[in-house]
């Protein structure tokens, strides 16, 4: 069954080329291959491509068949070339339309990406899928370790293991390190942009941020938030999955919504958080 499928696909793709080769052979441009072998290959290709052709007709009407083969082969090739050109052109247009940049801390430069937001989100979810990994560090179970370089958050568990989550971190100029404790937990938190952020967005992007945004799917804090000490920083969800793994925030730690919901249920107020 597998062999039949492979031959079927191969023949369907290359049947136009077989027609062209057969026509050239009939015209005398390809004298090396015996006519019977060429006929046999063509007929086999036609069979698997689902095109009924009589072998006696092929042998006794070479002149007619040469014209058919040339037209079919060249026409099919032209159609394939047109389709490939259209796909390439549309792909190039979409790539240009969705181009963007993000700051890569490791490279120390702006990196241009041309994937759509949905494609980036899919790649991020595949790369930063939540999973249990071995842990041989010195921190006690229950501790949260944020590794900004590796774009990962570890929640230390018993038995020498940790749950690893993918995260998004602060962009250049908004990185920070230190030790804090979770001071508050909130489900679907509201968002009050700090005054300095409001001024910065207005100055740099000409955008007016709301004084307050109610919690919900469109809120940038996502489904859950873990507030860190008395700072302005939080570990929170996001409605921009594509940003996980990137350095784009104003210092907060972003997670996939389903990941932050899971972590939220595992930790308590007072949990130690180490950002490094």
Describe this structure in words.
The chain is of the alpha+beta class and 276 residues long. It folds into two domains: 2-97, no CATH class; 100-275, L,D-transpeptidase catalytic domain-like, CATH 2.40.440.10. Helices cover 41% and strands 21% of the residues. It has seven helices and 13 strands. The chain has helices at residues 2-27, 35-48, 55-60, 62-97, 117-127, 195-205, 257-266; strands spanning 100-104, 109-113, 131-134, 144-147, 152-157, 161-166, 169-170, 178-187, 224-228, 234-236, 247-249, 253-254, 272-275. Strands 3-6-5-4-13-8-9-10-12 form a nine-stranded mixed sheet. The longest helix is centred in the N-terminal third of the chain and has 36 residues, at 62-97. It is globular, with a radius of gyration of 31 Å. Residues 1-13 and 87-98 have low confidence and may be disordered.
Overall shape? globular
Estimated share of beta-strand residues: 15-25%
Per CATH, the superfamily of the largest domain is L,D-transpeptidase catalytic domain-like
User: Which CATH architecture of the largest domain would you pick?
Assistant: Beta Barrel
Largest sheet: 9 strands, mixed
Kindly report the spatial arrangement of strands forming the biggest sheet.
Answer: 3-6-5-4-13-8-9-10-12
Measured as a percent range, the helix fraction is 40-55%
**Helix run count:** 7
| Count of discrete domains | 2
Report the structural category: alpha+beta
Mean model confidence by pLDDT: 78
- The low-pLDDT segments are 1-13, 87-98
Number-wise, the strands total 13
**What is the CATH T-level topology of the largest domain?**
L,D-transpeptidase catalytic domain-like
- What sequence of helices (H) and strands (E) makes up the elements? HHHHEEHEEEEEEHEEEEHE
Distance between the termini: 55 Å
What top-tier CATH class of the largest domain fits best?
A: Mainly Beta
């Amino acid at each position: 069954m597998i062999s039949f499928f492979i031959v079927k696909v191969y023949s369907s793709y290359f049947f136009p080329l077989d027609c062209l080769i057969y026509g050239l052979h009939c015209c005398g441009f390809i004298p090396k291959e015996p006519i019977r072998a060429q006929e046999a290959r063509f007929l086999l290709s036609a069979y698997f491509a689902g095109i009924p052709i009589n072998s006696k007709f092929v042998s006794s009407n070479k002149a007619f068949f040469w014209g058919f083969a040339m037209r079919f082969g060249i026409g099919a090739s032209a159609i394939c070339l047109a389709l490939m050109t259209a796909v390439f052109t549309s792909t190039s247009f979409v790539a240009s339309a969705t181009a963007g940049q993000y700051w890569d801390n490791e490279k120390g430069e702006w990196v241009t990406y041309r994937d759509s937001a949905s494609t980036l989100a899919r790649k991020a979810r595949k790369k930063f899928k939540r999973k249990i990994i071995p842990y041989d560090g010195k921190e006690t179970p229950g501790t949260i370790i944020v590794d900004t370089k590796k774009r990962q958050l570890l929640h230390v568990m018993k038995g020498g293991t940790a749950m690893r989550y993918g995260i998004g971190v602060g962009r250049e100029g908004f990185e920070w390190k230190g030790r804090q404790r979770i001071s508050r937990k909130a489900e679907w938190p509201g968002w009050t942009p700090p005054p300095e952020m409001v001024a910065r967005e207005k100055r740099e992007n000409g955008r007016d941020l709301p004084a307050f945004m109610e919690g919900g799917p469109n809120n940038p804090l996502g489904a859950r938030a873990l507030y860190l000490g008395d700072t302005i920083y939080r570990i929170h969800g996001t409605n921009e999955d594509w940003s996980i793994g990137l350095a784009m925030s104003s210092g907060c730690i972003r997670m996939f919504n389903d990941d932050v919901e899971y972590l939220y249920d595992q930790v308590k107020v007072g949990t130690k958080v180490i950002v490094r």
